[in-house]
Amino acid sequence: MSSKTVQALDRVVIRFAGDSGDGMQLTGDRFTSDTAALGNDLSTLPNFPAEIRAPQGTLPGVSSFQLHFADHDVLTPGDAPDVLVAMNPAALKANLGDVPRGATIIVNTDEFTSRNLAKVGYTTNPVDDGTLESFHVHPVALTSITVEALAGFDGLTRKEKERAKNMFALGLLSWMYTRPTTGTEAFLTKKFGARPDILAANLAALRAGWNYGETTEDFASSFVVAPAKMPPGTYRNVTGNTALALGLVAAAHRASLPLVLGSYPITPASDILHALAALKRHGVTTLQAEDEIAGIGIALGASFGGAIGVTTTSGPGVALKSETIGLAVSLELPLIIVDVQRGGPSTGLPTKTEQADLLQAMFGRNGESPVPIIAPRTPADCFSAAMDAVRIATTYRTPVFLLSDGYLANGSEPWSVPSVEELPDLHVAFASEPNATDPKGEPVFHPFLRDEETLARPWAVPGTPGLEHRIGGIEKADVTGNISYDPDNHDLMTRLRQAKIDGISVPHLEVDDPAGDARVLVLGWGSTYGPIAAATRVVRNSGRSVARAHLRHLNPFPANLGDVLRSYDRVVVPEMNLGQLAMLLRAEFLVDARSHTSVRGLPFSTVELADVISTTLEELS
Amino acid sequence: MTTIDVGMPVSGLRSVPHLPQEAAKQTKREFTSDQEVRWCPGCGDYVILAAVQAFLPELGLKRENIVFVSGIGCSSRFPYYLDTYGLHSIHGRAPAIATGLATSREDLSVWVVTGDGDALSIGGNHLIHALRRNVNMTILLFNNQIYGLTKGQYSPTSRVGQVTKSTPAGSVDYPFNPVSLALGAEATFVARAMESDRAELTTILKAAAEHRGTALVEIYQNCPIFNDGAFEVLKDRSQQEARIVRLRSGEHVTVGAEGDRKVLVRKGSGVMKFIPEAEAATGESGAVVAHDPTLDDPSQAFQLSRLDTPEMTHVPMGIFRQVSRPTYDDLVRDQVRAAVDTAGGPAGDAELGELLRGRDTWTVE
Ligand SMILES: Cc1ncc(C[n+]2csc(CCOP(=O)(O)OP(=O)(O)O)c2C)c(N)n1
Ligand code: SF4
Ligand SMILES: [Mg+2]
Questions:
Q1: Chain B residue closest to A444 (CA)?
Q2: What is the spatial distance between Cα A605 and Cα A538, in angstroms, rounded to a whole number?
Q3: H-helix or E-strand containing B114?
Q4: Which of A353, B44, B77, B80 has its CA 20 to 30 A from that of A469?
Q5: CA-atom Rg of chain A in angstroms
Q6: For the whole model, what pTM was predicted?
Q7: Residue B93, CB half-sphere, CA atoms under 13 Å: how many?
Q8: Is the pLDDT of residue B5 over 70?
């Protein structure tokens, strides 16, 4: 039918950019789903303003979604787009700096009016003034063609017709990259089932976009990207927030305990609250509290009652929860604190990513108050990190920090869904009978008599006869748990609480050093995994050796970490903060860990980190 | 969603396991822990503790199903002295912690013990939200109009002009009336009692425990060390009668002894006023007010709470409001239960697997 050529590519990075009201996130999500269904490996990076609808057509109102997909494994959302879809002048202006020469730019010419150009400071139209001469530009009158294609829909206003232009763009890109649109059609049918006219209009716009690509001469060829070779399994695409919510539910299921979430909405953590609120069928209870302090209080109250208490928040919320986290340390009860980090300090950059809460999680409380910290490395990894957090919390009777971030939360990737039976067994035994005898030989219960191996105290839940006991935030006497102001006892209890956390069993750190002769180690934690892995791959492809390791456990550190650090001439630590892990490593191991830091609200680019590694290698040679 | 029948008042203790009928009666001793009580001699907290220890056995509940949660303050040490489950938490946060516990464990009788600073200053937000949600728990607010534990600073219930360590020139803070505050938050059970009136306190505690929803009981408590005699005019037998307005459901609201009695009337403008009994009988000064704590509209209860002035000329005591409204924790559990039931029972491995896979999966061979 079509006489156009089809070219094969191994990888493509597309960025959809438009006004906040243009539906770019939805367009990106749909393109991602259709791409995942084709079997490509992929990684996504949504980027949106904190304002829901900043003034239309302005730079602050630009929202974008970047997707990297390939026929091989993908580690990052890509440094630079091969294709930019710019729905208005603001979107073009805000993103052009990231687009390399020779890339393709599709612009919606309808929006390039003198008024809209003026809003972002263009005095002439960049589409025809030569600004874009180094790019392959496709000027498409996206809005008016969409409206025209919907001419028959008399029941719809012009505004409603215009709103379907994102589906036109999606149809066009789906044609360009040979993506099936059946998934999107099913999605639209579900979303607009109650409004048949809107549904039909969106479907028509989608088809019109596809047909536009196929028939207009402006688009000379389409492209295919073959499926990636992935390990066998059943896959789905997940964001970090979804994976984290699922991990918590799976952990509760494997522990046979109820999951109780106490939370106060905050970007970028709210989607975990939304996801869990929809899982009542799985026995999940969610309470939206009056503030962060109440959110964690509710979770801790539930933990005291024998549930898995969870609270979800971002940095500012952690600041409010600190006192209650300290109480949980003192009570020695399980509790999960999810911190989806965002740019700080204060309100900072609510929708942008950062890793600057590590030291807050580590030390942000009064007194000696150790808390285990776990950080997932990719969106899908949030699932097992959440399960691991629950394992540690329930085994050691301690609050646990789960440090995600904005990039993991909203970014997505294919996830090989595990079978339920192969998930770890997290069953816990509550105390059921007295564990000691008093001087008269009567059985008594000592709430702070510890397990010799884990140093965990018994979890005795209300409703258990004979184990009535009182606990609180005042220092407790070792074993009996009675109030104690004794100096030696406080010293002992402080050291016991620390020893318990230090003794948590965490796996050894694995080092990736395929050549085996590397002198430089790149050590990261959390969401820098993708960029670091991609950068080391670039360096190795150029024939040089570099080792790479990634920390999931920030407290306690893996037992072999010191040895690993000392076996390299140089250790480079890239972080999206000003060197927080590096500070911990230097303090703990007296090693000369070199920081490479960036706090731009964006993940590292592969090129940037590859440069850092190359420079380090050159310094050594 | 299943609905909750609000027609019949449901006991707050409905789902808490009771002792079998034939079991030996529990005594105060069994509810007394082995911990040494550490309040100052003469502290009103002792009196309240004795009343609670004596009254708890009357509920006939299994001791292990009773939990006392407290904040920080002298009053918040209370849980240590009861041989039930107890959690002495942090300053002001007990209502939030108790909300999590009460919602996730309907088989527990949950009590909160708090002070005027704990409940109304640092924890004010949690208190009003617990009250508006109507979580099934009983809050005992020990009001001594002072910060006791921190050695005598003024509190949000201290009188204007009160000289304390932090207000040497007299407090200029306008105080809260805890009963008015609770009614403003639409609490479903609000009462006030005197620590020294054991019989009345016990009656109110019993009604509060039976109430399904958040019950707030303000207890006037003397702190002999930092605010001695704050409630003396109400304890003094010669003045008591003329000042205390005993609220009795279905009865006229009166104050004063036989012969010198005043009756509360509502004037045409809506204003309430005490007038001599004889005058009231003519009906010319307004309609005589009968107390009805079960009124859905909290306005009258609120008006009664405003009779109270810092000078304690007339202080209403008793149950201001006692209405039923679906409780938050019942509704939360109902939604979960309904979702589970509709799906055919608790999720097994198969259902979890389905959840993990989602709706949009693909297979790689
Ligand atoms: C976060 C925090 N801030 C301050 C304190 C100090 N503090 C302890 S109790 C208290 C006031 C207690 O007053 P109240 O609640 O009236 O209790 P009372 O001692 O009078 O029974 C204060 C300010 C604390 N423990 N925690
Ligand atoms: S300071 Fe006052 S309230 Fe506190 S224990 Fe002493 S007398 Fe009681
Ligand atoms: Mg007080």
A1: B34
A2: 12
A3: strand B109-115
A4: B44
A5: 27
A6: 0.94
A7: 30
A8: no
B162 pocket-lining for ligand 1 (C-beta < 6 Å) = no
Please answer yes or no on whether A462 and B80 come within 8 Å at the CB atom.
no
Q: Where do runs of H (alpha helix) occur along chain B?
A: 44-55, 94-104, 116-117, 124-133, 178-184, 198-210, 232-235, 237-243, 277-282, 299-305, 328-342, 349-357
Amino acid at B185: A
Residue B300 contacts residue B179 (beta carbons within 8 Å): no
Q: Give the amino acid at A609.
A: L
Cβ of B362 and A298 within 8 Å? no
Query: Does B2 reach chain A within 8 Å, measured CB to CB?
Result: no
Question: What pLDDT was estimated at residue A277?
Answer: 98
Residues with CB under 6 A from ligand 2: B 39-40, 43, 45, 74, 144, 148, 223-226
Q: Which structure tokens are listed for B9?
A: 């008042």
At A324 the pLDDT is 98
φ, ψ of residue A45 in degrees (nearest 5) = -140, 95
Q: Which residues make Cβ contacts (< 8 Å) with residue A432, sequence separation at least 6?
A: A464, A467
Digit-coded pLDDT (tens) for B314-357: 999 999 999 999 999 999 999 999 999 999 999 999 999 999 99
Of all ligands present, the nearest one to the C-alpha of B39 is 2
- Is it true that the peptide bond before A414 is cis, omega within 30 degrees of 0? no
* DSSP conformational letter for A617: H
**B362 has a chain A CB within 8 A of its CB:** yes
Q: Report mean pLDDT in 10-residue bins for chain A, 621 residues.
A: 80 96 94 92 91 87 96 94 97 96 96 96 94 94 96 92 96 96 92 92 96 91 92 95 98 98 98 98 98 98 98 98 98 98 96 97 98 98 98 98 97 96 97 96 97 98 98 98 97 98 98 97 98 96 97 98 97 98 98 97 95 97 85
B79/chain A closest Cα distance in angstroms: 7
* Phi, psi (deg, nearest 5) at residue A574: -80, 130
Distances (CA, A) of B224 to A205, B103, B158: 79, 38, 15
Tens of pLDDT, residues B233-278: 999 999 999 999 999 999 999 999 988 999 999 998 899 999 999 9
Number of Cα atoms under 13 Å in the Cβ half of residue A25: 13
**A237 residue type, one letter:** N
Say what the pLDDT of residue A3 is: 66
Q: What is the pLDDT of residues B123-159, one digit of tens each?
A: 999 999 999 999 999 999 999 999 999 999 999 999 9
- C-alpha–C-alpha distance, residues B191 and B182, integer Å: 10
Residue B36's pLDDT is 93
Angle, alpha carbons B247-B303-B211 (nearest 5°): 50
- In this predicted model, what pLDDT tens digit does every residue of A367-391 receive, in sequence order? 999 999 999 999 999 999 999 999 9
Q: Do the bridges between strand B315-322 and strand B244-247 make them parallel or antiparallel, or are there none, so unpaired?
A: parallel
Cα gap A526→A553, rounded to integer Å: 10
Residue type, A290: E
ipTM above 0.95, yes or no: yes
**A96: number of CA atoms within 13 Å, CB side?**
19
Beta strand residue intervals within B213-300, DSSP E: 214-220, 244-247, 254-255, 262-266, 272-276, 287-288
Query: Chain A residue closest to B88 (CA)?
Result: A472
| Burial (CB count within 10 angstroms: exposed 0-12, middle 13-18, buried 19+), residue A115 | exposed
Sheet with A62-70, side-by-side order of all strands: A41-47, A62-70, A11-19, A83-86, A104-108, A136-140
| Phi, psi angles (nearest 5°) of residue A202 | -65, -40
CA pseudo-torsion sign B1, B7, B12, B17: negative
pLDDT for A49 equals 84
